Amino acid sequence: MEQSFSAPSANPETEEDRGQVAPESKWHRRAANRPEELFQAALAVVLEKGYRATRLEDIAHHAGVTKPLIYHYFKDKDDLVFKSLEWKIGQILDDMRSESGPSEAGTNERLRKLFEYSWARWRRTEFGFFHGTILFEMRLENPELFRKWTEVSLVQRWKVVEDILRAGQLRGDVRNDLDAAAAARFLISGGIQLAWLHLHTAIPEFAPCREKTLRETALNIFLRGIEPDRTEPAANP
Amino acid sequence: MEQSFSAPSANPETEEDRGQVAPESKWHRRAANRPEELFQAALAVVLEKGYRATRLEDIAHHAGVTKPLIYHYFKDKDDLVFKSLEWKIGQILDDMRSESGPSEAGTNERLRKLFEYSWARWRRTEFGFFHGTILFEMRLENPELFRKWTEVSLVQRWKVVEDILRAGQLRGDVRNDLDAAAAARFLISGGIQLAWLHLHTAIPEFAPCREKTLRETALNIFLRGIEPDRTEPAANP
Amino acid sequence: MEQSFSAPSANPETEEDRGQVAPESKWHRRAANRPEELFQAALAVVLEKGYRATRLEDIAHHAGVTKPLIYHYFKDKDDLVFKSLEWKIGQILDDMRSESGPSEAGTNERLRKLFEYSWARWRRTEFGFFHGTILFEMRLENPELFRKWTEVSLVQRWKVVEDILRAGQLRGDVRNDLDAAAAARFLISGGIQLAWLHLHTAIPEFAPCREKTLRETALNIFLRGIEPDRTEPAANP
Amino acid sequence: MEQSFSAPSANPETEEDRGQVAPESKWHRRAANRPEELFQAALAVVLEKGYRATRLEDIAHHAGVTKPLIYHYFKDKDDLVFKSLEWKIGQILDDMRSESGPSEAGTNERLRKLFEYSWARWRRTEFGFFHGTILFEMRLENPELFRKWTEVSLVQRWKVVEDILRAGQLRGDVRNDLDAAAAARFLISGGIQLAWLHLHTAIPEFAPCREKTLRETALNIFLRGIEPDRTEPAANP
DNA sequence: CATGAATGAGTGTTCATTCAT
DNA sequence: TATGAATGAACACTCATTCAT
């Protein structure tokens, strides 16, 4: 759970002492990108313990620095944590942008592809963390951040699906009486919840289920559920 | 959010009995059932702030008593909070038991009824609170409680839906290639997430949507998605 | 360690309900000698834990009553504890008075008898307790009590020995250049310390020694140490 | 009683450097060796009040620092107090090691010298404190420490005396029927008790006695008490 | 830049004591 | 007489934050 956040707690080789004898100075290593290291440490700890349960000490320790140093880079604890979260949101967003090539395939194919991409994202530890911490804790602690995150992780996804569905309706792939926006929310929110419960909680331990079945069943029901009626195949005036 | 939990922090009737003498006696309120009052106070505060951010002082104040009194009834803070949550889980469970008469209606009707009942439950403040606090915070702080709650709120519901689906498969109302367990999870988890996001977060403020549409679209897609294939149109007597 | 202090926590047979139906009153059993029961409970607990570590709750529990009841009989905690100690001191003193018949035996015999009586007393749990609690804790907490106790347990004993020694000096059993008062202190204080270390601490577990040897060696050395010089038997002008 | 432990609660030199500017900076005193200062403060307070009655606040105040600082150096209160006691035990032990040169004098001389050295130690405030606090309170609170201390202060001394006595027996200075181990205990335990009662309690106030007489009488009785029988007067060359 | 030392403002918990019945 | 309920005053311990170097 901490692999991608761990910071190098001391990396003596990168230092540029040469010629001069090591001058016994107390602080070696001016990290080029301290802030980012601190971001990662903060995220790792908050991921593991939750925001409220996270102590500044833990973050510092995780980053291999001392507490006061954090105040050189950030105003206070909240500043660090919230900026860390925003930084991660930005990263995830970048990652998402580079993701879905605008395909010309059929509606079902586009939805399937999107859903599977999304599921793969939801699998990731980081995502599980965000879904938990931000959706719950930040909703109370920092509504602004809550909003930013849901905008990125939910609302935009909803929109993408909504657009696909509308296009499908024009083509006749999707029944016209469907509320595309609501349907989109169902697919994405339902999928996220399914994935999160299955992949980031202990539920499978006492209520086991195969991940693939879960994913495909959900998608399948959805795709069938939005099909136009087939009994009157040309009944679309 | 605090309607059902608020306790009168001072009992006005006993205060000014007579304009004159009442010697400001230090404490009133012979508690009939303090423990339950404390449960409610604890729930109210934890609901509002989350478990980690809850201070004993707040609970005591909310219940109109002083901190040390809590130790008269409970071993420590966790004892109070966790027992409060369990108490509420029990209540909700009782409530759920008295709910769904075993109907002889068709599969669709039974699912619709169940979903609508459930949605009504998900609307309630208390439920939103549990979904947040327990699913997220208790997952980390008290896995046992997390398990108890998910067992009640999710796993059992899944089973009910699963049974209905299997019965439907026998009747021919539901297609046979459907994995009933996975489908049940999709309906319930998706519904909860939809309801929670819509009813217990600020999302509708910046991404509005009609609740009814949301609910009915989800149900509708699901019901259509589980129908047997109609390509063999005469197979339906 | 608690045998002699345990209070009957409920003794229904002694109640005088007759004729009338048991009136469901909350408080049965007016103990005839509550104070003494409380003394014993207090002593038992203080013995086990020391004065500072003793909580009123413990005493009440030990006596089979509730905390507030103690305030019916005693002003506060200290009042109870100190009176308990005084009560016990009185008891021990009574016991001591009834002890040593004024014997007409020789000096050595009298000393031997006294020392062995005393040693038997020092063996007792209660004594070990007093020696520890009073000598150390009460010296700081209640000097008055410290004084009362040492007067009884030490000073008076010293005097008895001193008198025996002086009598012995007159008879010629004890050398005349001996300071009887100092010698008496050495015998008694040394004996107490020896007995206490051996009988009321864990020392024998890692530094074993036979009790009898200890006792007799000490007495023996003392008796020989106070003998008149035998080399010049009539050298006493 | 506090002479060697008192800490300056404010460092006057840094206070009024210049009459004017000094902006009342919140804290001074870059501690050279805080841990030891805290040891001393802890010992001073525990000495005065006993372990159970000692509040962290007092120790901090005594050391001229604030409570939380203690947690910078020690895990908790017990960690500080117990380590302080161990530190002192170590010091006393060191001190003892550098004490008695192995003399070639006669048995009596060796015992006299040892006893007088010991008495001088028992006089010291610190020793009286240890004898009280450790022998009584630590016996209940921290048996391990009790053992460490008695090992150092009693058992080892006993052994030294025992060895001298055995050597004396070989030489013929000490009678052979004497149990050297028991005799050693009598001398040391009796001496400690005598010294402690006389020097560290209020007893002399109401039962006066000259210290020198006490010390010499005890030693004298002991030395005479271990002599070989003189009934065979010519056996002494 | 970097940190060890220091602190103020909490926060949970204990306990002798008192109120109301 | 007897007690369950209640509290004030303390106390151990935590933690974000700042000082001095």
Walk me through the structure.
Four copies of one chain form a homotetramer. Chain A has 237 residues and is an all-alpha fold. Chain A has two domains: 1-9 and 29-90, Homeodomain-like (Arc Repressor Mutant, subunit A, Orthogonal Bundle), CATH 1.10.10; 99-226, Tetracycline Repressor, domain 2. Chain A is 66% helix and 0% strand. The first copy, chain A, is built from ten helices and no strands. In chain A, helix 4 (77-97) packs parallel to helix 7 (143-171). The longest helix of chain A has 29 residues, at 143-171. Mean pLDDT of chain A is 85; it is low at 1-27 and 232-237. Chain D binds a DNA duplex (21 and 21 nucleotides) through helix 4.
> How many beta-strand runs of chain A?
0
How many domain regions of chain A? 2
* Annotated CATH topology of the largest domain in chain A: Tetracycline Repressor, domain 2
Oligomerization category of the chains in this entry: homotetramer
Strand content of chain A: under 5%
Cα end-to-end separation of chain A: 55 Å
| Overall morphology of chain A | elongated
Helix content of chain A: 55-70%
What is the overall pLDDT average of chain A? 85
What is the CATH architecture assignment of the largest domain in chain A?
Orthogonal Bundle
For the record, the CATH class of the largest domain in chain A is Mainly Alpha
- The computed structural class of chain A is mainly alpha
Report the order of strands and helices of chain A.
HHHHHHHHHH
Q: Radius of gyration of chain A from the CA trace?
A: 23 Å
Identify low-pLDDT runs of chain A. Answer: 1-27, 232-237
